[in-house]
Amino acid sequence: MIAYKFLRADGTSPFTGYRWELPKGEPGAWVEAQVDPCRSGIHGLRLGDLPLWAGRTLWEIELDGEMRKERSKVVASRGRLLHRIDAWDDDFRAEFTRMCADRAHDLANSVSPPLSNWEAVVEPSIPEGPALLSFAAARIAEEIGGPDAYHAERARQTGWLAGRLGLE
Q: Where are the chain's structural domains?
């Protein structure tokens, strides 16, 4: 299965600290681990999971072996990095963060009275990056329109990313 993975700039996982062998023209080495979501296993993302986990660098990863599809990720017993998604760079990451911040502002101000409690946290949260700002926009949508609005906002974010990154 082809999926995606966010890593730090040096190829380490932000949660485990595992340093991946980065591909150099051909796929990286296979990494194996027991499947135990959030504890062990090779965690990958489907396209719709990207806004939830948006990190520093984005990689295409091949998952194989035992697999468990979770709500916001896929966990497999084997995986290897295929290539970096070069379009996801610091400028693109900042653009996505800004888009999410602008969307959060628009949503917070779309109702009367405006949701000033949300409006006050958007700009200070920008340094935290795109995962937090995409969450804020989705939560504001949910506060206004319920769970369906949350999911619609997440789908909107996914569409924005997919279109600009050329992902399917």
A: 2-84, 90-165
Residue type, 127: P
Question: Which residues pair with residue 78 across a beta bridge?
Answer: 32, 64
Q: What is the pLDDT along the chain (168 residues), one digit of tens a residue?
A: 999 999 999 999 999 999 999 999 999 999 999 999 989 999 999 999 999 999 999 999 999 999 999 999 999 999 999 999 999 999 999 999 999 999 999 999 999 999 999 988 999 999 999 999 999 999 999 999 999 999 999 999 999 999 999 998
Residue 22 per-residue DSSP state: P
Closest to 16 measured CA to CA, from 1, 33, 4 = 33
**pTM attached to this predicted model:** 0.93
